[in-house]
Amino acid sequence: MAGDATDRPGEARAAQQRLDALLQEDRVFAPAPGFARRANAADPAVYERAERDPDGFWAEQAAALRWMQPYAQVRSGEIPHVQWFPGGRLNVADNCVDRHCDGPRRNKAAVIWVAESGETRTLTYHRLRRDVCRCANVLRSLGVRRGDRVAIYMGMVPETVVAMLACTRIGAAHTVVFGGFSAEALRERMIDAECKVLVTQDGAYRRGNVVPLLQNAAEAVRGTPGVSKVLVYRRVGAPALQADLPAGMAVDWAQAMREAAAECPCEPMESEDLLYILYTSGTTGKPKGIVHTTAGYLLGVATTHRLIFDLKEEDVYWCAADIGWVTGHSYIVYGPLCNGATTLLYEGTPDFPGRDRHWRIIEEFGVNIYYTAPTTIRTFMRWGTEHPKSADLSSLRVLGSVGEPINPEAWMWYHENIGSGRCPVVDTWWQTETGMIMISPLPGLVPTKPGSATRPFPGVAAAVLDEAGNPVGPGAGGNLVLTRPWPAMLRTIFRDDERFVRQYWSRYPGKYLTGDGARVDADGYFWLLGRVDDVMNVSGHRLSTYEIESALVDHSGVAEAAVIGRNDALKGQAVAAFVTLKERGAAEGGAALKAELQAHVARKIGPIAKPDDIFFTAELPKTRSGKIMRRLLRDIAEGRALGDTTTLADPSVVARLKEQYEEGE
Ligand code: WTA
């Protein structure tokens, strides 16, 4: 709940001590003069100018897009129902592909793909345009029209990028579902978004194994009457498509693309037309369909990408996230391609075939900008420096971090061992809902402090508020809010505007509630402290405690479940579940049942949501009104002294639970 930041004094104290230590050591990294001189954002006045006239700043940036019809206004509407660039018309595929084909980028690599097997494929902008056109024509032939929704359930292959851009070309919206989600999760999202067509692939490679995407997809469409066709890209060479899908549903990607025309005009879209829906976990059991629209989103991701990563024409840029998450949408596909960049796409995991895989890729392709998550950086730390040391990483210029707070130790390791102490590290804070990076250094202008995302992007306004809505003083913790609309902001939750208003805009009227805790130091630097609501962040994957609880109680043996994210040195957070059983006593919940429950959660949501710990208990600590006290469960799981237990119906429950938990460890 929103007050939790202050409910966790132990953590807050630890964070404060860390911060004090860092400030004492004065570890502040000023931009190197050579870098600063050549930086895309080199004039410090940009902050002040954007602050004075934010709409003017965004209008200036908007000149970099190709418009089919000029907009009438930069912004209109009342918070939170804001429109950006009303009256304007443009097309995202036109901006991300076609316009680059009209000039010297025509033969530039748009996408460099590295398969897990080592095979590579490069799509130039010209070639990408032809594939996007073909795919757009295929989608049309399958009945997709402007305004329709298409589900995409694929792995990290260029065809995923092609399918997304093909949707935007014909004015259809996509909803990409991460390949680690289960059939049931896919079905739920396709039903909510009312998808007409599903694009998938037979299987995806992961550490040499095959993830059975088509099998999941087939299971999902069986319960989704709205989906009439499934376009299947054969990546692993499954012999038969029809076997898995109802008769007449499957369409073979390769064959359809061969037969399709390589020309297809771009639909002129309104600025505020739906671009995509991306489902994310919230504080209830039902995922939210976050709605992003056309002009503002594209502008937001392109501008931040160009300035924060200091993109140069000749750069090779690599974001190692998955396209199924917002980071992949904004910073593998739309931002980079809108800027005419070369974006590298890697299919596999960092440890296949060896733990030096990422460094080999950087060396082989001369990667200049590398963007990954703290959980991955901590994994690299554990693997040891011999792996990065064995590769030539001298092409690197800028390093990025995203997805969770980066601990100063990981920041320093990244800076020293990957960046040789010479590459600026940009810690970028944002969310599925914000669409674009909101808090991050501009690498040529802002001195960095390890562990701080530094300051809001020009034109963005953020604050840290106490429970009463007053800004907290330097060093104190509170709720991070965004106090001014921004172009890539979510417009609503699909088909649930009421939830949109309630969830984000009503805690502090007129301000956007992020759900994150933060503090601001005396220099105005933001230090992110993690979620303060019931959203967890496990290895950079966003999960909801309620979603996992619903999956657990769906099992016939479970009476009640409480799930929390406990601190984990590697994953950021790990999922811990406290479960009470029907009929049987807690003592009967053994290893077999634990494995069964883990498999059940994997089936309901996906392997990413499997609880790390399952603890069987006779009772859960509850308030007199019956609310489970998750805060106390967190204290138990993290081995802390119990916080305030006076509101419990029966304080002895939690004391017993703590004893049992410690015995069980
Ligand atoms: C967390 C991912 C600290 C945060 C782009 C946020 C971060 C949630 C950072 C959104 C960062 C993301 N420092 N925390 N640099 N970046 N987060 O929607 O808790 O998957 O609310 O978007 O990740 O996760 P989402």
Précis, in short:
The chain has 665 residues and is of the alpha/beta class. The protein has 22 helices and 29 strands.
What does this protein structure show overall?
The chain has 665 residues and is an alpha/beta fold. The chain has 2 domains: 52-348 and 428-517, ANL, N-terminal domain (Rossmann fold, 3-Layer(aba) Sandwich), CATH 3.40.50; 539-664, GMP Synthetase, Chain A, domain 3 (2-Layer Sandwich), CATH 3.30.300.30. The protein contains 22 helices and 29 strands. A 7-stranded mixed sheet has the order 5-4-17-16-18-19-20, sandwiched between helices. A 5-stranded parallel sheet has the order 7-6-8-11-12, sandwiched between helices. The longest helix is centred in the first third of the chain and has 17 residues, at 9-25. It is globular, with a radius of gyration of 24 Å. The structure holds 5'-O-[(S)-ethoxy(hydroxy)phosphoryl]adenosine. 5'-O-[(S)-ethoxy(hydroxy)phosphoryl]adenosine (WTA) is lined by residues 280, 325-327, 402-405, 427-432, 453, 514-516, 528, 530-531, 537, 542.
List keywords for this structure.
alpha/beta; 2 domains; 34% helix; binds 5'-O-[(S)-ethoxy(hydroxy)phosphoryl]adenosine; 29 strands; GMP Synthetase, Chain A, domain 3; 665 residues; 22 helices; disordered N terminus; Rossmann fold; seven-stranded mixed sheet; globular; 21% strand
Topology (elements, then pairings):
Layout: H1 4-7, H2 9-25, H3 33-38, H4 45-52, H5 54-62, E1 75-76, E2 83-84, E3 89-90, H6 92-101, E4 109-114, E5 120-124, H7 125-141, E6 149-153, H8 158-170, E7 173-176, H9 183-193, E8 195-201, E9 204-206, E10 209-211, H10 213-222, E11 229-233, E12 250-252, H11 253-259, E13 269-270, E14 274-280, E15 288-293, H12 295-308, E16 316-319, H13 326-338, E17 342-346, H14 357-365, E18 369-372, H15 374-383, H16 386-389, E19 398-401, H17 408-418, E20 425-427, E21 462-465, E22 477-482, H18 497-505, E23 512-520, E24 526-531, E25 535-538, E26 541-544, H19 545-553, E27 558-568, E28 572-581, H20 591-604, E29 613-616, H21 630-637, H22 651-664
Parallel strand pairs: 4-17, 6-7, 6-8, 8-11, 11-12, 16-17, 16-18, 18-19, 19-20, 28-29
Antiparallel strand pairs: 1-2, 3-13, 4-5, 9-10, 14-15, 21-22, 22-23, 23-24, 25-26, 27-28
The structure holds 5'-O-[(S)-ethoxy(hydroxy)phosphoryl]adenosine (WTA).
The site of 5'-O-[(S)-ethoxy(hydroxy)phosphoryl]adenosine (WTA) has 23 residues, from helix 13, strand 23 and strand 24.
